[in-house]
Design brief:
With about 200 residues, the chain is mainly beta. The protein folds into two domains: about 70 residues, Thrombin, subunit H, CATH 2.40.10.10; about 120 residues, Trypsin-like serine proteases (Thrombin, subunit H). The chain is about 10% helix and about 30% strand. The strands form two sheets. The chain has a six-stranded antiparallel beta barrel. The two termini are about 25 Å apart. Belongs to the peptidase S1 family. CLIP subfamily.
Length: about 200
């Protein structure tokens, strides 16, 4: 498997803007190791996180930059506007977007999220760990199929930081009052640091 770095439009390479500027060509980096959380169970959403170790280092460009990991829970307040980005579907019956999409959604209270998924029991399993998930969306526009694993980000002190990883959402994309559920970066920050190659921590 591999990770493609520096892409925006999957139909073109390189990606060029209307001004004539072209970004560097996107690069595929081979994955040398996948570190799955030891408590993850396939088919369930608990501990829905893994680390990909690349065989070669990434050369950062104007089109490919690292993102900070946000490890503070206290400033992630309900109602704060955050962004989900990815190449998923734009509607339940649609196809995946060839261009990188970005959507602003609000952070949602945990109580509202639990009520929304009460009939599924997804957030009420005995395996649930307090704080392992966070919720965002529910306004009628949301992430859709194909966004699994996509980052949830905020702008923090002038720079972008990742706060979550898309885990699951409503069967009908963008259903009103049905926020999507994300694995919390802050909750898993110690595990991420402990299992990241030391050269990259």
């Amino acid at each position: 498997s591999s990770v493609r770095v520096g892409d925006y439009d999957t139909r073109t390479d390189p990606d060029c803007g209307s001004t004539g500027f072209c970004a560097p060509v996107a690069i595929n980096h081979a994955v040398s190791q996948i570190i799955v959380h030891p408590d993850y169970i396939e088919g369930q959403y608990h501990h829905d996180i893994a680390l990909l170790v690349l065989r070669t280092p990434i050369n950062y460009t104007v089109a490919a930059q690292p993102i900070c990991l946000h490890s503070r829970k206290q400033d992630l307040t309900v109602g704060r506007r955050v962004q989900i980005i990815g190449w998923g579907k734009l509607s339940t019956s649609g196809t995946k977007s060839p261009e990188l999409q970005s959507l602003e959604v609000p952070l949602t209270s945990w109580d509202k999220c639990v009520r929304a998924y009460a009939s599924t029991g997804a957030l009420q399993s005995p395996q649930s760990i307090d704080g392992e998930w966070m919720c965002a969306g529910g306004e009628g526009r949301d992430a859709c199929h194909g966004f699994g694993g996509a980052p949830l980000i905020i702008r923090d002190q002038g720079r972008y930081a990742q706060i979550g990883i898309m885990s699951f959402g409503a069967e009908t994309c963008g259903a009103l009052n049905m926020p999507s559920v994300y694995t919390s970066i802050a909750h898993y920050a110690p595990w991420i640091e402990a299992n990241s190659p030391k050269a990259f921590v």
